Amino acid sequence: xxxRVFSATAWDLTETFFEAMREYRQIYILYETQVLAHAxxxxxxxxxxxxxxxxxxxxxxxxxxxxxxxxxxFRAKDISHRLFRSEGRTTKFDRFISEIFHELSILREExxxxxxxxxxxxxxxxxxxYESLLDEVHEDFPRRxxxxxxxxxKAQRALEIVLRARRQDPIYLRSLVLFGDATVRDAYPDGVAxxxxxxxxxxxxxxxxxxxxxxxxxxxxxxxLGAIERALEFCATTAxxxxxxxxxxxxxxxxxxxxxxxxxxxxxxQTLGDEATEPLYASDAVTVEPDETETVHQG
Length: 299
Description:
Strand content: under 5%
Distance between the termini: 29 Å
Shape: elongated
Number of helices: 12
Largest sheet: 2 strands, antiparallel
Structural class: mainly alpha
Low-confidence stretches: 1-5, 283-291
Mean pLDDT: 86
Order of helices and strands: HHHHEHHHHHHHHE
């Protein structure tokens, strides 16, 4: 199939997913902080907490929910559908991102109802409707907020499985070096190194080694050398922590550093160009591993 020049890639999916996850984490933390503060102020357990409509409406920011739903989350869902939905099959990640989108949409509507309709009921002295709506959101808000939080965790693990099957994707590899620190900084305690350990058997040393080879075969000598140095740093700092022997990767990295250092960009392309692999584009028909796939049920 002919590729479109600006088709989304597996890295675009990675970047948009972690952006959405980061935005929701901020919403989640603010929600939890406010709930705990109200519970402490009333001296009750959070599960016995009872707030009025004005207080409940401030637990979630409608504009932030809308920005997340229509922004990063929508893009992640759209890219995922185009990457993985083919002939009635998809991946667990695609299901999780769809569930997150659905749950967030409902949460946004619930927040709108309590911030708009509850006040109207109170002004009209429709107390039964007012109390019924508050009962609904007092039960629904914590359940849905935490459900989305857990779905993001599941989606993250599912994305790692997807990426493991495609870890030689050159755009993913090079982007991990160039933008990985900013992209995954909040999702893993040790940042890009933690992400690399989740995707590559030998961790960031292996990831940055393959990225260096990808840079080199395209003639990006400076970037290749930079990736090699970071790979060596990762090997030096994580080998003992992870209790793995990375001496073979270190040897390969040092040998490859010599090769890259002694050749011009043109020579690197001439000698390594055949190593280039094709990235995963959203416009391609995609083959997924059997244990990743799920049947899409219509209707």
